[in-house]
């Protein structure tokens, strides 16, 4: 009986270990935000708080632009949106690099 209990315990431990070691958890499988209707106009850069691409599993790909008035979906082919996306990703890289360099001790 002790052997059976030890075997069951070992199997449970192995099952828990395997489940936590999976490369993709359940939250990694669901898509982020998807767009179904697209804003046809242009949003001024000064109003853009953040911009991100929709998840690759979305049926219609686009940019999700966060503004003080709310979120807007914009088609990936809009040149102004591509420029805004590239600018914000470049700006965030600079801020990350500046933040990392400011935490380093002086030489």
Report what the structure shows.
- There is one protein chain.
- The chain has helices at 2-20, 26-29, 79-102, and strands at 50-53, 62-67, 70-75.
- With 107 residues, the protein is of the alpha+beta class.
- Strands 1-2-3 form a three-stranded antiparallel sheet, covered by helices on one side.
Quick synopsis:
The chain has 3 helices and 3 strands, in the order ααβββα.
Order of strands across the main sheet: 1-2-3
Low-confidence stretches: 6-29
If you compute it from the alpha carbons, what radius of gyration comes out, rounded to the nearest whole angstrom?
23 Å
Share of residues in strands: 5-15%
Record field, number of beta strands: 3
Q: Tell the overall outline.
A: globular
Tally of contiguous helical segments: 3
Topology pattern, helix = H, strand = E: HHEEEH
The biggest sheet amounts to: 3 strands, antiparallel
Q: Structural class, from helix and strand content?
A: alpha+beta
Furnish the topology, listing elements before pairings.
Layout: H1 2-20, H2 26-29, E1 50-53, E2 62-67, E3 70-75, H3 79-102
Antiparallel strand pairs: 1-2, 2-3
Q: Key terms for this structure?
A:
107 residues; three-stranded antiparallel beta sheet; secreted; 44% helix; cytokine; 3 helices; Chemokine_IL8-like_dom; single chain; alpha+beta; Interleukin_8-like_sf
